[in-house]
């Protein structure tokens, strides 16, 4: 596949989508340097391709090059400003860089475009937690489970926030909902339930 794609690009270097395909394939093969180089060549030719910038950001995110990820997403969102997923990913990147104020701005932009995305509500709540804005975080997590009551991760986040607010019974209920929806959370929820039940007995 790599040989075929590379041959196609040599014949026609204006096939913008192939730069992403080759870059992703090289990433999957473990050749991170050539993967980045492929995207950079494509972006020199197509600097206004929001799709190419977005795909490049995903590759950089896998490599945990967070400053480069930020730059790629900032470029992508210039050309796809109405893409709630991009704003959400940009917000998450700001969180990884410990910049919660900018993260909150991006998550709010994402939710302005699509208010029914439970993951964006969870990410907004997490950004609020970084600033110890527990009440605002609680509101966001409650909105997440309201939008999608089958999203187990949102129930876990809600439980964590309720713990911070010392609302132990409500936290237990949230954790119970999470593990009912997704058994992968069973071990984590059991640990939280033990801690919370001990706290309730001690109280």
Quickly list its features.
mainly alpha, single chain, elongated
Q: Would you give an account of this structure?
A:
The structure is a single chain. It contains twelve helices and no strands. It has 203 residues and is mainly alpha-helical. It is elongated. The model has no long low-confidence stretch (mean pLDDT 93).
Taking all Cα atoms into account, the compactness measure Rg is 21 Å
Helix proportion of residues, in percent? over 70%
Give the N-terminus to C-terminus distance in angstroms: 63 Å
Beta-strand content bin:
under 5%
Main sheet attributes: strand count, strand direction, barrel closure: none
Q: Count the helices. How many?
A: 12
Helix/strand structural class = mainly alpha
Write the layout of secondary structure elements.
Elements: H1 2-11, H2 16-28, H3 32-45, H4 50-62, H5 66-79, H6 84-96, H7 100-113, H8 118-130, H9 134-147, H10 152-164, H11 168-181, H12 186-202
What's the short story on this structure?
By secondary structure, the protein is mainly alpha-helical. It has twelve helices and no strands.
